[in-house]
Amino acid sequence: MAACGRVQLLLLLLLLSLCLLTVQALKPLPGFGNVHLPAAAMHQQFRAALPNPGNNAAAAAASSGSRRPTGWKLAEEQACRDDVTRLCPKHSWTNNLSVLECLQDKKEDTEIAADCNHLLWNYKLNLTTDPKFESVALEVCTSTMLELKECADEERGKGYLMSCLVDHRANITERQCHQYITKMTSIIFSDYRLICGFMDKCREDINTLQCGSIAVGEKDLHSQGEVIACLERALVREAEQKDKAHQIKDECKKAIMRVAELSADDFHLDRYLYFSCRDDRERFCEHVRVSFSNSFLSSMHTCRNALTTRQKLIAQDYKVSYSLAKACKADLRKYHCNPDTSMPRAREARLSFLLLCLESAVHRGRTVTGDCQGEMLDYRRMLMEDFSLSPEIVLVTRGDKGTVDNLCQTALQTLIQSADPGADYRIDRALNEACESVIQTACKHIRSGDPMILSCLMEHLYTEKMVQDCEHSLLELQYFISRDWKLDPILYRKCQNDASRLCYTPGWNESSELMPPGAVFSCLYRHAYRTEEQGRRLTRDCKVEVQRILHQRALDVKLDPELQKRCMTDLGKWCSEKTDTGQELECLQDHLEELVSNCRDVVGNLTELESEDIQIEALLIRACEAVIQSHCHDVADNQIDMGNLLECLVQNKHQREMNDKCAVGVTHFQLVQMKDFRFSYKFKMACKEDVLKLCPNIKKKADVVICLSTTVRNDTLQDVKDQRVSLKCRKQLRVEELEMSEDIRLEPELHDACKKDINKFCSSVAYGNAQIIECLKENKKQLSQVCHQKIFKLQETEMMDPELDYQLMRVCKQMIKRFCTESDAKNMLQCLKLNKNSELMDPKCKQMITKRQITQNTDYRLNPVLRKACKADIPKFCQSILGKASDANELEGQVISCLKLKYADQRLSGDCEDQIRVILQESALDYRLDPQLQVHCRNEITRLCAEEAAAQEQTGQVEECLKNNLLKIKQDECKTEVLNMLKESKADIFVDPVLHTACALDLKHHCAAINPGRGRQMSCLMEALQDKQVRLQPECKRRLQDRVDMWSYAAKVAPAEGFSDLAVQVMTSPSKNYILFMIALAVSLLFLVGLLCGRITKRVTRELKDR
């Protein structure tokens, strides 16, 4: 053992001498029976050990000692008699040890005579330097010397024996030996000059730092504990400030730390700490056994600085904490955490190294004794409570701007790993106090200190149960835990094997440049969502934990280290005002195209992951809890989501359980999905091969949907046997098209084209439920040309495929189930139209059907059935109208009006005639279905038929009113339309609903055998009207007579424009037979006249020939 490497050994010598000198006050030691020196001889040895005092007091003390056969007494010395009488209780006067302890533990405001101080100093110095007392130490600690081989082998006479015994004080089992060694140690530590070699090693540093006086008499000799305290503070400053602080010599550093270690067991031994905290200790810790681990509990203002210095020394060397070193001694040896000669002492002696080593064992499932874990908990909490105990943090916070962030981040991360608050939240006192109420209410079912408490708190983050202080503290802690997967004990325990197998991670307290802590979790979640075909998947328990962490990270971007690192600039640029819960990520997703490439990749990957497992969006799931429980609980309970939950939420977005927060969240995710088809997991999985083959350079989902749907439509129209788009993709494509029809924002091209029109005409209309689209349809005539064209194209698509008409399908959902369960999706509107007038038809659905009928009749292109049936007739009869048509404008029913006239002329093909008949029948009941009539007769209807129009009974009353007021109509265009209606009614009685209703019984009785169409049933009724033997219903007869008068007037007002029109009028006239008879009679008379004229002409010609 190096000379003076420890405390001066002769504490034990002092024990023996005082034992012999104070037999009256103390019980005799069993070992002392073997001591052969008589009391008088021992007294002489002690007096010989004392140097000749340099003053009268000392001399008096020496002489008085020789005169006392019972032993020399400090209390009887003239130099100290007054101080002893004044300061020490009388029962202690006969015990030199008690007197010495009483005088050196005096209060700060109590002065002791200088002569007494000097006497005490010489007394203690001689006790610690006289080797004669080693033999006494051997007698007192006989059994101990047998047990401590290393102490028995120490060289005698140099003080090494006592130093060894002090080192092994914790292992001494002899009560008297342990008691006296402990008692006498306090004498040594009262003055740094009594410690072997300390002054020689630290003299230069003491002078440089001005830590105290060395010459006797310049300072209170018994306050020299302040010198050691000064050196300890300098040692702490050096660790915190590095080159900016005074550099203490290595040998002095070792001496300082050695003193701190040896004084660790009893805070009496640290004189500066003892005097600083004595009052606080007596006030708050009166009944607590004296030790440093307990004294830390008393951290009042008066002794806070002294305690902090001691804590900082412990942080630099764990052995400075006696209780920790003792409790964890066996565990340190068991898990190889003891000093390693190949490593710098400063590193592996640090408290953080000890904690990391032992925590690593705990996390690996190894056993650490309860006492050691208790001590570790105390010191982990200590590190968390005061950042200044970690010199790395203090150092970097004083560094240059620009380099602080990374260094500070690393230092804080190391502190969190050392303290490991993830394993026990109570280590973070701020979190524990702030979250106590939340834990008591939301997490009371979890055992206190369990790691699941933190997960429970995260589950209630941003809920009503969370309080603001707890929220802040929790996010501060989670910020660091999220950056090192090992700091989450549950995740580490469940995933350490997977991480080692798939990510090649190092041990818990080890690091690797190839696989830093932040990269490990990225590796785990990449493997968490692999398919069975891809292989190398996580175990089920690990995947559950990975999903839990992803859910937590989705609560705040700061909890996703990769996202925050790469997107810091974009967050400041685009999202500086988006600071509410969850808004930052939504903002980044909204600006995906504008983000820098690194940030865009991270946000894109996260969004793609969310599309597969929307439960990662914890805030959204929390907001949608009601609708999930009501409509999506089956898919929500599945271990593997595969995008099913999001699809269910979209489908039930307008259920009554859906609240605003949930609806906004689901819609936002739908809008984000439009930016990249990969963000729609089910669509991506179903169509990725088709996209690569058919739409290789298209990324946006809307464009991909258009590309694929166009391919499907073209293949269908061309009757291609093998569709280019796969069946599974076609099915999912249908789902995407239906979802897009719900909100105009899901069709970016349409939305961009109509933004100004939306602001102008639909500013008060909410998005969703296709309400904006419906608003634009209703204001179609006022829309800008670009928007109008897009809306027209949209309507054309919806009419070809009514299932894409979201409003129609929503409003008529129940009616479709009632009337059209067997109808094909493309014939859905046709089916609803056929059942429109049913008594069971819902009024709202009926109104919606009427709207769609009005739309269809504005342009034949919006009526796919008519367009197909009249494919040949339209260019044949209406070419002049087609020549004026454009994609941007409807034809306002001009083509259909043209076909109506040809229907009246009976010139249409059979299929086209059937479709026009249907249109005529529908428009006869509701004038709004006739665009030309509505355009030209709007003012006349308001003037002449306001009451009928307001009734909206859809029974043809407005048309009947116009017919009855034909003579009062002033506008020629309107009059022409009414005349056309009359003309059309002559061709088919069904076109005249009022007449048809009035004559229904007569048709059944008199014209049952007559097929409808081409005016046959109307001719039958007119013949019955003229036949006096046939009795018609009065109402029918009156209506028929009115029609005859109207037709007569129409003939006068609108004469035939040509022979063809004349022939049509004759053939469709109720007096067709009469007219034909008269025409035949006229032709016959003309023929007879011709014959007579021919005979006369022939006779004159013959007479001329005879000439």
From TrEMBL:
GO molecular function terms noted in the UniProt entry: fibroblast growth factor binding
Q: Where are the transmembrane segments?
A: 1074-1097
Mark the Cys-rich GLG repeats by their residue spans: 465-532, 537-596, 657-716, 724-784, 840-907, 969-1029
Membrane topology term reads: Single-pass type I membrane protein
Q: Give the GO cellular component terms, alphabetically.
A: Golgi membrane
Highest taxon in the source lineage: Eukaryota
Among Pfam families, the record links this protein to: Cys_rich_FGFR (PF00839)
Signal sequence region? 1-25
- UniProt keyword Phosphoprotein, yes or no: no
The question of whether ATP-binding is a record keyword is answered with no
Task: Indicate where this protein resides in the cell.
Answer: Golgi outpost; Membrane
Output the InterPro entries linked to this UniProt entry.
Cys-rich_GLG1_repeat, Cys-rich_GLG1_repeat_euk, GLG1
**Keywords from the UniProt entry:** Glycoprotein, Membrane, Repeat, Sialic acid, Signal, Transmembrane, Transmembrane helix
What protein name does the entry list? Answer: Golgi apparatus protein 1
Q: Which organism is it from?
A: Cyprinus carpio
Taxonomic placement: Eukaryota, Metazoa, Chordata, Craniata, Vertebrata
